Amino acid sequence: MSSQQKNPANRYVSDLKRYGVGQSQFPSVLRSLVPIALSGIFLLLIAIFVAWSQDSFGQEWLIVAVAAVVGGYMALNIGANDVANNMGPAVGGKVLTVLAAVLIAAVCESAGAILAGGDVVKTVSKGIISPGTSIDVSQFRDLMLSALFAAALWINLATMLSAPVSTTHSIVGGVLGGGIAASGFGLINWVTMSQIAASWVISPVFGAACAAAILFFIKKRILNVEDRLEAARFWVPVLIAVMASAFTAYMAMKGLKKIWGPSLVEIVIYSGAAFLIAYLASRPVVAARTTRLQNRKKDIYGLFDAPLIAGAALLSFAHGANDVANAVGPLAAIVSTVQDQSGIASVVSIPLWVMVVGAVGISFGLGLFGPKLIRVVGQKITRLNSPRAFSVALSAAITVLIATSFGLPVSSTHIAVGAVFGVGFLREFLENPNKRTLRPGHKLNETAEDAFNSISFRSVRRLVRRRFALSIAAAWFITVPASALLAAVLYWLLRLL
């Protein structure tokens, strides 16, 4: 007979312990349900808005409502997954808390999406496929809807598994799979696809090289010199000025183009002026701060905090301008077929409410689900500090801005993660010159010199977690075919219905 059967009091104590464990788990379950409930409310509000505006869409308002809800769902997943790549370095460098990173990213993502997202939306919605007369309007709508839903489902699964996949890969794969299911391989614009595919390869390589170059410059010119304070007083304002100049050039070319169209000469002039103003403004600030610091690396790190925050904000702005296309590009294409009864328009007009759905959805998804992947990107691949994180943020921002200026839907995931790996591998290269460690052996050497020379094992200090490189590469490889296959299945189901 067990002790619980002998003593009923033991059984009651055991039941109370199990009840206590169950009660302790309840708050965590409740916390996980709250973001899901808030997301459901957000999607419901989108549906109510479209229903309230049904006079603008006529009898086809229901297809617009469905597409808008799916677009909002896609935007939530972009915020939960892709934005982590922008703010992860700042959090990993311990410059921003997760809450502060979420708030800054939400504001900058929304501003970038609304001010500078139009051209990229047109590229995603109209550049990947060439409908012509091979499919009708109904097929085109089903194609866009299946692509959008497939991409959103795949990103949602990846977020649950803590995998920072590319949302651009997902939506392009969805459009690719849906297009092939609709009308075969001839529907795809393979020239555009090849350009997009090339950008996927170029983005992480360029991001890694740029981040490594920036960090190498910081190390050689500031951190590894004899008088670090004097070097910082000269070079940190220069780096701040470079960032200000790049941001000014981007705003002139993309952010304000609807109300201001400067020439190339004007852009150069304004960018040069921004460089000069930022340099003159930051120089006395940096000089004043260095008077209170010691000539140590850790003291110098703090000088990069403010530039890093500015770089992360710039990166979020560019991400909003670039990746809002992934959320609302197909939605804009569907809306254009409803409002323009002549058929599939060659140029898509982006309504403001469509852009707002994408911007708000990305910000909402970031706040509700983004902190998890922010920690993964910022802390799991390699150890970051302020200069390293600044190099990652500035490199990713420059790469995204260049891509946006060409209207290419590049993957910010590839850029940011590639930059993090670039920083990590540079650290390995610089911090492991001819390092050796002793391996226990069976041979007894006569002298210490013989023992040292007989060492057959040379260790290298690994500063990058290789397993993350393999897992991330696998996720990138799987994303396109998985989302394409899922979109094809969804397209066939929609046609059957």
Structural class, by secondary structure, is: mainly alpha
Average pLDDT reading: 78
Low-confidence stretches: 436-442
Based on DSSP secondary structure assignment, what is the total number of beta strands?
0
Radius of gyration from CA coordinates: 26 Å
**What fraction of residues sit in β-strands?**
under 5%
Helix coverage percent: over 70%
Largest sheet, strands/sense/barrel: none
The number of domains? 1
Number of helices: 18
Distance, first to last CA:
62 Å
Q: SSE string, helix = H, strand = E?
A: HHHHHHHHHHHHHHHHHH
Based on Cα principal axes, name the global outline: globular
Family: Belongs to the inorganic phosphate transporter (PiT) (TC 2.A.20) family.
Organism: Stappia sediminis
Subcellular location: Membrane
Pfam families: PHO4 (PF01384)
Describe this structure in words.
This protein is an all-alpha fold. The protein has one domain. Helix content is 77%, strand content 0%. It contains 18 helices and no strands. The protein has helices at residues 3-6, 8-52, 61-81, 84-92, 98-116, 118-127, 137-160, 167-183, 190-223, 228-255, 264-290, 297-301, 305-339, 352-379, 386-405, 412-431, 448-453, 466-496. The model is unreliable at 436-442 (pLDDT under 50).
